[in-house]
Amino acid sequence: MDKQDINRIGMGNIYYAIIVLLVALILLSAVFSVSIGQVNIPFKQSMDILLHAMTNGRLGSLDNVQSESYLNIILQVRMPRVILALLIGIGLSLCGTVMQAVVQNPLADPYILGISSGASLGATFAILVGFGSSALLAQFGVAFGAFVGAMFTSMAVLILSSIGGKATSVKLVLSGVVIGALCSSFSSLIIFFANDAEGIKTVTFWSMGSLASASWEKTPIMAVVILLGGGLFLFQHRVLNTMLLGDESAITLGINLSIYRKFYMIVTALITGTMVAYAGMIGFVGLIIPHITRGIFGADHKRLMLGTLLLGGLFMIWADILSRTLIHNVELPIGIITSVIGSPLFIYMIVKKGYNFGG
Amino acid sequence: MELTAKDMEIKIGKKEIIKNVSIHVKKQQFVGLIGPNGCGKSTLLKSIYKSLVPQQGIVFLDDLDVLKTSEKKISQRLGVVGQFNEMHFDLSVQQMVMLGRTPHKKMLESDKQEDFEIVEEALTTTNLLEYKNRGFLSLSGGEKQRVILARTIAQQPKFMILDEPTNHLDIRYQIEILSCVKSLNIGVLAALHDLEMAAHYCDYLYAIKEGEVYAHGTPEEVLTSDTIQALYQIKCQTYTNPVTNGLSFAYGI
Q1: Which of A15, A26, A306, B250 is the most exposed place for a label (fewest CB within 10 A)?
Q2: Quick one: which H or E segment has residue B130?
């Protein structure tokens, strides 16, 4: 008994140590991220600028900063981008973890229930058919179209899977596939009839995901949606754990999964829709980050949740750094980077002996 | 706790699975449900533990109306060991058993020392203490079923429903599971396939055939050659086992 208690406390300490480490890594990576790019700013100066900005000048002095423009580059251009990367990483891995529990399937990701196809349809419509003519409205239109598309498909999937009784995980996945296929065919139809090479290129580019549109104006909505969602799910570990057992066992533990599934789907659809609207489709993060975190902390959502959020944020900050720096003067779409890093990592996890999706 | 299910009628689609079945389990009684595959045993049990809604009938646990009470409140009193189900994600044995505390927890409440002690006790009762940190998916079928039993014990139920809990298990695990449940001294309603086990462990039996109660009574009253032949469409001779002095059966087609 004593030894086991010590064991338990020991395990707890390791958990907290990893969490602290992840937070520290995120902060350091963020400073590193704002330092590099087409203009390289020395790390020390970036640190000074950030400290100065965050503490209203009480800490960090601007005396050593070589150029005024550094301030602008860091605070107006790169900082919102790092924050967007962090938020998107948190959001994707959050929705991935929740979706994997909701459909009881380790292959699930935030886009599994047709959200991706719906958002693509909305974005394609906005780009090729359009809501308006001015450049500003067009830019806003894509985000709006993607968001509406995502929400519309999620609701359609939810309604379709609820027909004739409980929304089971199998019905959800199948509804997602069907609605997704329907949306894809409509997107193809629009592209087929569009006589607009530039527009088609924009659609393709959008579907690869990008953080280039980051700005301070967009940050608050993102931050509110994702942090509220994250806060909510950090305290849902009991329900999420019983989801792993399936409907039948969950009922005997007093939890009616059908209701929670719908509730979680609505929340994740809101988060995913917002993310897709701002950054397009960024694949793989929502699939692999939950799995990697399970490899570290196990499948108990009590620990998995916080870990997965932090790891997701860290991963996206680095994917963003790579997308900006890998090829000189070219910014690669971040979706390509996440898949290129993600796939080998995932293969390693599958090949590595003993990974049982959390054990 | 006493369980009363009265005038139960259950349809799945258009098919009538259970027709007018009434069952009563007295305090601390171990009651068995026997009958061929597809006779409606599991369906009946599911409607009692709220997984299915019956078209007609009432279910009471003491004076608690099961069909009108929330799942959470029922699960604080009623534990269920079901047929084995697949899982795609792995939890440790301890985490798995800890899930049994779910009904007693508010959404934001954390696991307390008391909960860890209850889990520890459940693991001891089911002989699983050394498996505590193993992954659930790495266990054998019999071990998994014991973990489920431990989870149900950690739920601290006043009544337990078992749905063919010993399916696919070897003889030792079958005996272990049923003895363990019997030693809890709470009301039990169990669907069982093995008639010798049913005769040995049950105080009272209901034989179900085609969705109706075909016979009920003590094992000696129900487990006659005639009843068994009618239930399972086989030839059967009963005899007193000279070694155990219990009821035994010789089957043939």
Answers
A1: B250
A2: none
| Beta carbons within 10 angstroms of residue A333's beta carbon | 20
CA-angle at B140, arms to B135 and B146, nearest 5° = 80
Asked if residue B92 lies in contact with residue A302, where contact means CB atoms within 8 angstroms, the answer is no
A306 Cβ contact list (under 8 Å, min separation 6): A19, A234
Q: Rounded to whole angstroms, how far apart are CA atoms A173 and B249?
A: 48
Query: Strand, helix or coil at B160?
Result: strand
Roughly how many angstroms between the first and final C-alpha of chain B, as a whole number? 40
Task: Please name each of the domains of chain B with its CATH number.
Answer: 29-52+62-224 (3.40.50.300)
Q: For chain A, list the domains and their CATH numbers.
A: 2-351 (1.10.3470.10)
Exposed/middle/buried for residue B36 (C-beta within 10 Å: 0-12, 13-18, 19+): middle
Using one digit for the tens of pLDDT, what is the confidence trace for A132-178?
A: 555 555 556 888 888 889 889 988 998 898 887 777 788 888 899 99
Residues of A with CB under 8 A from a CB of B: 1, 4, 7-8, 100-101, 104-106, 235-236, 238, 241-242, 244-249, 251-256, 294, 298-300, 356-359
Give the closest of A238, A246, A357 to B85, CB-based. A246
State whether B137 and A254 contact (CB < 8 Å): no
In tens, the pLDDT along A308-341 reads 999 999 999 999 999 988 888 888 889 889 988 8
CB A268 within 8 A of CB A114: no
A256–B71: do the CB atoms touch at under 8 Å? yes
Dihedral angle sign, alpha carbons of residues A285, A286, A288, A293: positive
Chain-chain contact of B87 with A241 (C-beta, under 8 angstroms):
no
With beta carbons under 8 A apart, name residues in chain A contacting B136: 359
